[in-house]
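ASSEMBLY PREDICTION REQUEST
Request ID: AP-0331
Submitted by: J.K., bench scientist
Number of chains: two
Total residues: 346
Priority: normal
Notes: Please return the full assembly, not individual chains.
Input sequences:
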Amino acid sequence: MVQPVKPLADEHHVIRYAPWSKLRKDEDENVHGLLPQALELRPGEEYLSVTWIEFFEGEPHEQYLCAVSTLRSSIDTRPKGAMAKANVGKMRDICRQRSAPIRIVHEPEDPNEAHAAIRRVPFDNMDLLDRLVTEAFFEFDLNKNIPVT
Amino acid sequence: MRIVGSGKAPSGAATTFVPAEWASSDIQRFFSGVPASVSAQDQPQSTINKAASLEKRIFEALAAAKISTASVAMHLSTEWRQKLFRQLDSVHDIDEFDKDDSPVLPSSFRTFLRTTLLINPRRMPGLGLSSGGNMVAAWTKDSDRLTIEFFPGDRLIWTLSYVPENEGPPERAAGENSAERILEVLAPYMPDRWFNP
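STATUS: Completed
Returned structure:
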């Protein structure tokens, strides 16, 4: 039976992991956020993977730590990489201004039950990706600074 | 047409501008002798012998980049070269490197190096990599940001945002052009804000 697709609510948030090579740094390697390349798709990929924070119960910070923990157990994360958080509604606003029909939907994937997919974004448009990392994914923590739960 | 002189390239002219101090035979050899097309070293990850460890591929990519740099080292300060190598090594740290990513492509690095020589920035950018192995350079000053991705064949894609007069909403621009046109296309945005603060 086909499961109905569930779009994420505007007021909800997602996190995306970005490795060290895709972080925006200055000449002294101080981290200032994500490069637009952190949101690019690899050849063959059809959507951008993120983890839905409000999938988990609890206070916002507890939900965030659960999302990080789930992400750590489902993909290869490294200490100097970053977990970047974005508001779903903000992403939709940015893409709407550029007439990009973005879809952000809950698509559980083993082992990440909170997995969500971002689809229908022109992922080859570096300007749009730069706006997304600057104005949506601007909150970030280095992986090594987030406690293990 | 090749112009050798000082200052910026004339606007609208279909020329290759080589500042006088760069018109030495070694720079010209570097600019003209390297094939613009993708070289054998740039083969996609899938065509590389997968038995080659990630560590080996990173080592080879870094060696190629540093050899390229050595060929124009006399035009880079020692401090600049050391910072460049340090960042290259850091971006390719085996303990942090995503195994599904490619190390820096030699032809992308050559585009980066050529662009660096053309811009001659006092301030070094922060370096990154695309998943496919293209060099990425980012200059950040408060809310002013410039990001350039370097492709094989001297092609660049760039995006920038800045706040005019440090007030009001940010302005944004993006473009795709050849490396030799980079200063001309960035001129309206006063790139010294990033390159020579």
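REVIEWER COMMENTS: The first strand of chain B starts at residue 2 and ends at 5.
SIGN-OFF: pending second reviewer
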